Amino acid sequence: MQELTHYLGGAHVNGTSGRFADVFNPATGEVQAKVPLASSEEIDKAVEIAATAQPAWGATNPQRRARVLMKFVDLLNRDMDKLAEALSREHGKTLPDAKGDVQRGLEVVEYCIGAPQMLKGEFTDSAGPGIDMYSMRQPLGVCAGITPFNFPAMIPMWMFAPAIACGNAFILKPSERDPSVPLMLAELMEEAGLPKGILQVVNGDKAAVDAILHHPVIQSIGFVGSTPIAEYIYGTGCANGKRVQCFGGAKNHMIVMPDADMDQAADALIGAGYGAAGERCMAISVAVPVGDETADRLIDKLVPRIEKLKVGPYTAGDDVDYGPVVTAAAKANIERLVQSGVDQGAKLVVDGRGFSLQGYEDGFFVGPHLFDHVTPEMDIYKKEIFGPVLSTVRAQTYEDALSLAMDHEYGNGTAIFTRDGDAARDFANRINIGMVGINVPIPVPLAYHTFGGWKKSAFGDLNQHGPDAFKFYTRTKTITSRWPSGIKEGGEFNFKAMD
Ligand code: NAD
């Protein structure tokens, strides 16, 4: 049994709390490693190391810091296969999907190589007589990030790349379900030339998170995970005076207009609904066809495609569409919600219950499900299922479809499929959701734009990556400077314009 470690001050360090969590291979159901769960003393140690290392890193010029990220990109590409394999083994997603996970993180690292440009600051010459005014963006100091299981490479990189590019030290508390890739990323950053102690990984659960939330030296917390935990971390972190951004759960609707290309819409729904076993915050979990005729045509297109889906372990090769879900508990939760859908009167058009894979009977596989005639009061509509379950809610008009998505408590992503530019434009303008796709089912913005939902899908003002990340990981200092050409006598007591 492999015992994983923390990564502190540039070395793998065994856990000392005596508490561990099981890390599963979701395809076989076997426990493949034990991950230590940090105590508050271990968080204290990481913060002490980070606070000692950060001032020199913060004073290193930005292009030298960026060069570390440049080298890191090379190393990610060099080790892509190794990272993807480790990721699939603990998460369960297919190898191509695991590579996408690394790639979408890598793209943010590439973007952060431009940090010197983003950190330039502002300067006003002669803001008043003999007075110059300038603003600079300075690092916060020690920052922390708490990440979910579903993107164990991408989301840590979305946080630590900009934080470190800005001159901060970063403590990552990854998901205890798949901690190996985050540990590998920390090693690679050091191989790329990052000084010891600037990126550390502390494994753990609520105890470690609470220690982060209450540590006076930690200046900022980035969180991605489920909404109840996002709300808890946002509330507690803010109450403790930290800068906090938290990204939560989702229930993403895809509106299918009567004029949509139905093959295209069905293909999009298959990838966005069932890819990664539905364990994506940008997965489409609700299809909203407009009109019964559209709904019937869409269901007719979906059913044969769903029946053809290949579910299997990542080791089975490229023709597997999706793998197991992450834990037995996740599987049980999905099964419970599917049963509630049946009990509450939705029509289970494709029934994935009782799915079993020969040779992998103990794996956490879930068959694909398709519900029709789902209504807003049902639990399968209200709750995030995070599994391969697509619900269809029939809307009678475009306005009904729009209101449905707008009234849902989550607001991460959404999409509309139509050939009507006017409808698409109206949808994009009026919808109260952060990321919108027009004939694009998973509209994840690229690294140089920002990523973030609205409503109960995000807490805080700034999004992830893009220009917002440089605002989140720095604070502004504005200097007003006057070099005397002859100081006037006497103080000035009035708060006045500089004219
Ligand atoms: P989770 O909320 O269970 O865990 C996320 C992190 O919080 C983990 O590091 C975990 O150790 C920690 N945590 C768990 N329980 C805690 C507690 N009681 N107190 C303090 N910390 C705790 O989420 P998950 O299951 O790992 O990830 C799936 C969720 O993440 C889904 O809801 C998904 O929609 C969401 N997600 C959102 C985004 C986004 O950008 N909005 C992206 C990816 C995932």
Unreliable segments of 5+ consecutive residues:
none
Whole-number count of domains: 2
In which order are the strands of the major sheet placed? 15-16-17-14-13-19-20
Ligands, deduplicated: nicotinamide-adenine-dinucleotide
Helix and strand content put the structural class at alpha/beta
Shape: globular
- Rg computed from alpha carbons, rounded to a whole number of angstroms: 25 Å
In DSSP terms, counting alpha (H) and pi (I) runs of 4 or more, how many helices?
A: 16
CATH architecture descriptor of the largest domain:
3-Layer(aba) Sandwich
CATH homologous superfamily classification of the largest domain = Aldehyde Dehydrogenase, Chain A, domain 1
What's the main sheet like?
Answer: 7 strands, mixed
CATH topology of the largest domain, by name, is: Aldehyde Dehydrogenase, Chain A, domain 1
Roughly what percent helix? 25-40%
Mean pLDDT figure = 97
List the helices and strands and how they pair.
Blueprint: E1 2-3, E2 6-8, E3 11-13, E4 20-25, E5 30-36, H1 40-59, H2 62-78, H3 80-91, H4 95-112, H5 115-118, E6 122-128, E7 131-139, E8 142-146, H6 154-165, E9 169-173, H7 180-191, E10 199-201, H8 206-214, E11 218-224, H9 227-239, E12 243-247, E13 252-256, H10 262-274, E14 284-289, H11 292-307, H12 328-343, E15 347-350, E16 369-372, H13 379-382, E17 389-392, H14 398-407, E18 410-411, E19 413-417, H15 421-430, E20 435-438, E21 454-455, E22 458-459, H16 467-472, E23 474-482
Parallel strand pairs: 1-5, 8-9, 8-11, 9-10, 11-12, 13-14, 13-19, 14-17, 16-17, 19-20
Antiparallel strand pairs: 2-3, 4-5, 6-7, 7-23, 12-22, 15-16, 18-21
Helix pairs in contact: 1-8, 2-4, 2-7, 3-4, 4-6, 10-11
